[in-house]
Amino acid sequence: MTGVARSYRPVLRDQPFLLPPDMREWLPEDHLVWLVLEIVEQLDRSPLHARHLNTGCGRAAYDPDMLLALLIYAYCLGVRSSRQIEQRCVTDVAFRVVCAQDGPDHTTIARFRADHQDAFAALFTQVLQVAAAAGLARFGTVAIDGTKIAANASRDANRQHDWLSREVNAILTQAQRVDAAEDVEQTERPGNGPRLPAGLGDRSGRAARLAAALAEVQAQQRAQQQAEQQREATAAARLERAQAGASVIGRIPHGPHRLAEAQAHLAREVALQQAKLDRRAAVIASGRRPVGRPPVPVEQHPHVIRARRAVEAALAQPAACEPSPVTQTTLVANTSDPQSRLMPTRCGFVQGYNAQVAVTADQVIVAVQLGQSPNDFAAFVPMMHAAQAAADQLHERTDDPRHVIGTVLADAGYASDANLAEPGPDRLIALGKSRDQARAARTAPTTGPPPPDATPRQAMDHRLRTAEGAQRYKRRGATVEPGIGNLKKLLDRFSRRGLDAAASELHLAATAFNILKIHRAMPVG
Question: How far apart are alpha carbons 111 and 51 in whole angstroms?
């Protein structure tokens, strides 16, 4: 049978408008944009409207509810640039639905995001309550982890204290010369009127950023000096305890007291072993039979050998015994975003911030925090308490047993005596690498509760080697790492600068993340 020739589908770009007049028919009912609009209607938006009284003369302002929904939907798609959002309001049907075909310009979008940055944390909490009402947020296990997110700054824009001081002084000197010249001109020609100050004419804000960067370096210097003073006080206290014959736990710190403490420790170990030998000799001299194996000679005891090696190491490296000076060359600040930091990652260094994320067993983000330290251990207690507060708040509203924290999981980056002993919910914190921990659980398993006299680290090591502890900790990676990976699909680089601004953007991205979880959990059809 001979087929009938068919023409192509017609391409009629001059076809009159055929879209339904009701925008609710433009997209399917299960589209994400409808959920975003519905959730925004449930939120408390009064803080947003408080800044937009819409009184007086001039053109009417954009509805804050619409701008909020536009921002949230854009972040759900990983679109963070205000210019890209403006363009999407022209080319994307869902964006045109959100703004009702009255798209705002990029300046309005950026200004709205900046003006309401303090409200995004509260909006994140409210969306979390919506997720809980939808049956999500199972707190049986909560995993905490950190990830480095790039700032809106160049890694090459880091400058040291001397360079920043020269630039700031040069700007101030130039400003003084301009002010003096304008004063003379104003005196000679009083009719010209005052001119715009030089600082207000600098649209880029370079002078302000340089001054902020210099202040950051000076703050880092003060913090480093305080830390050095604290280390010196701690080392002096250790030396005093060691010279008094008391036991001092931990590695001997480098510094001026290293040799003295090593010698005091050696003298203590020698005295302890010699005392054992003297007691045995006294028993033999009294005609009694000693009990147990005879002590080894003093110079052969492993504690004495180790202490003598510490003394030899201190003598061999006299430079390590000197206090480490606070040098300005090691401290830098970024002239684009002075509050960002150079962070080490597996793929090198990144100029950014350390984002902390707490994720539930069903991968709902319940708490976020942004910090400037590349280390994680100081963030554990605040994140644990934030997760606990979120669980308590949700449980108070829902009375659902799933909204009660069971166990908090964290990797070895959070392992410290303070984090292990801090009051709060039950926790499992790794003390080493995952493969070493799994090997220890297989080769040296334990059962039952830890010994009553165990230290926090010994108790945690015991729990991690039990079958239940090892099995529960294995869920850490599968809980938090996919959550962080999906969050960074929405926010792999901050658009705004400054710690507070970036933190508000992190809350906005976490809000979008949870809305996506709600949308995926909705029944189909």
Answer: 12
370, 354 in Cβ contact below 8 A?
A: yes
Percent of the chain with pLDDT over 90: 41
* 0.70 exceeded by pTM: yes
Place of tokens 């944009």: 33
Q: What is the pLDDT of residue 101?
A: 86
Tell me the residue type at 106.
Answer: H
Task: Classify domain 134-153+337-496 by CATH number.
Answer: 3.30.420
Please say whether the beta carbons of 356 and 369 come within 8 A.
Answer: yes
DSSP 139: T
Helix (H, G, I), strand (E, B) or coil at 3: coil
Least Cα distance to 260 among 243, 237, 245, 241 occurs for 243
pLDDT at 120 over 50: yes
Q: Is 424 exposed, middle or buried (0-12, 13-18, 19+ CB in 10 A)?
A: middle
Q: Are 379 and 146 in contact (CB under 8 A)?
A: yes
Write the single-letter amino acid at 151: A
Q: Are 331 and 161 in contact (CB under 8 A)?
A: yes
> Measured between alpha carbons, how far is 273 from 275 in angstroms, rounded to an integer?
5
**Paired tokens of 365:** 């983000």
Q: What is the DSSP letter of 168?
A: H
* CA angle centred on 51, ends 197 and 492, rounded to 5°: 80
Distance CA(318)–CA(237), nearest Å, equals: 21
Q: Which of residues 326 and 391 earns the better pLDDT score? A: 391
Strands 348-360 and 365-371: antiparallel
Q: Which residues of 489-499 are buried (b: 16+ CB within 10 A; e: fewer)?
A: ebbeebebbbb
Instruction: In whole angstroms, give the CA distance from residue 396 to residue 475.
Output: 27
Kindly tell me if the per-residue pLDDT of 306 is higher than 60.
Answer: yes
Query: Which pLDDT value is given to residue 112?
Result: 92
Alpha-carbon distance values, 212 to 163, 197, 335, 337 (Å): 13, 20, 8, 9
Q: What is the bridge-based pairing of β-strands 348-360 and 141-150?
A: antiparallel
How much of the chain exceeds pLDDT 70, in percent? 80
Tokens 């400037």 belong to 372
Task: Supply φ then ψ for residue 316, to 5 degrees.
Answer: -75, -20
Cα separation of 14 and 16, whole Å? 6
Please give the Cα distance from 296 to 87 (Å, whole number): 82
Residues in Cβ contact with 145 at an 8 Å cutoff, skipping those fewer than 6 apart = 356, 357, 359, 376, 410, 411, 476, 480, 481, 484
The per-residue pLDDT for 452 is 87
Structure token pair of residue 517: 């979880």
Per-residue pLDDT, averaged over 202-227, amounts to 65
Asked whether 461 and 412 are in contact (CB, 8 A), the reply is no
What count of Cα atoms within 13 Å lies in the side-chain half-sphere of residue 469? 26
Asked whether residue 469 carries a pLDDT value surpassing 50, the answer given is yes
Q: Is the dihedral of CA 18, 22, 23, 25 positive or negative?
A: negative
Strands (E), 299-424: 332-334, 341-345, 348-360, 365-371, 407-410
Average pLDDT over residues 271-280: 85
